[in-house]
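Task card 7
Instruction: Convert sequence to C-alpha cells.
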Amino acid sequence: MDVIVVGAGIVGAACAHALSGAGLRVTVLDRGAPAGATTASGEGNVLVSDKAPGPELQLALASVAAWPTLLASLADELGAADVEWDAKGGLVVATTAEAAGPLREFAAAQAAAGVAADLLDPAEALLREPALTPDLALAVHYPADAQLQPVLATTALLAAVRGRGGVVRAGVTVTGLRRGRRGAIRAVSTTAGDLGCDAVLNAAGPWAGGVAARLGAPVAVRPRRGTVLVTAPLPPLVRHKVYDGDYVGAVGSDDAGLATSAVVESTRAGTVLIGSSRERVGFDATIRVPVLAAIAAAARRLFPALGGVVVQRAYGGFRPYVADHLPVIGPDPRLPGLWHATGHEGAGIGLAPATGRLVADLMTGTAPAIDPTPFRVDRPAVLDG
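Output:
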C-alpha cells in the first residue's frame, strides 16, 4: 500500500514512522517546512497530569510509555537522535483552599485510573521547587510528565522514514483527490502534480478541516491559538513542569474568549518557557500585549523571582480544536481510503507515538492495543461541529 501523509508536524511524522515500520510505502507532504507550524510553536509537553480519566488519558499513558522506546529505536536507526528528552516530572499546585479541593479530587480520580499522582503539602512542594511562591495550599507531583524538543523529535522521525525509503516533500499543497470508477482513491492532486496512492492520512493539525474539505469529506477541526513567553537564559530556577491547577479547566473549556493559566518550565538551554493562553480567533496570528501581560502576571504569582527576569521573545501558534476535546483518529467512512489523525489540540506532542501506532494498527488490520471507538471520525463533534 502507498500512503500519503498530509502534514509533517509531530503527529504526521509519528504516523509516517509507524506506517513505514509496518511495511507501507509512505510519502509525507507539507505545504510549508516540516515541523514548521504547530509543532514548532509547542513547549514539548509529554503529559498525563492534565487529562481526566477517559480515552485521552489512555492514549497519553500509552504515549508516555512509548516515547523512551521510540527514542531508543531512533538512535539505533540514525546513529544519534538527541531530542532533549527530560523526564522531569510535573508539579500541579493550588494556591488557595478553594482550589485545593478540586485538585485533590482530580488527582484521586487519576490515581484510580492508573496515574502516579502524589499529594504534597506546601513544605514538601517547596523542597521540590524552592522558588515557588510560599502561598500554597496543595501540590500534586506527577513523575510521568516529561518534556522534549518537538522540532528535533519530528526531524528524527522523518529522517527514519526517509531511511526506510519514504519520501518527505516540503512546499507541496494538497488540492484534491482522484478516484477510480469504483470510488477508490487513486491519487492526490497537489501543486506539484498528481501523486498516486492507495490511502491518504490527513494529519494537517489546525488546517485539517480545510484539507478535509478539499478532499470532499469535511471535519469540524478548528484552530485555537496559544502564546508562549521565553525568558533569557537563567541559572537553574524551575525543576519540573509547574502549573496552576486551573490550567486543566482552561484546556477543557469551550469558551471562545481568552483563557490564561500559569504554566512554567525550564529548557536545557536555560531559558524558561511561560504559558499559557487559549483563545479561538481563527487564524489571526497577531501577538497581543494584553495576552502577554496576563500570562506574565500569572507566572509571577507562582514564581515571584520571575518578576525581574528579561523576556527575550514571545511566539504563538494554532492548535487543532474539536468541540468534544478528543482527537480524530481513524478511517473516514464517507470516503474509503481517507484517514485522519488530528484534533489533539495542545497535546499532539505527548500523544503522537500512540496515535501513530493506532493508525498503523488500524490500517494494517492489526488488533489495536487502545480502543479506537472514542476517536472515530463519524462522531457528532467531528461531522457536525
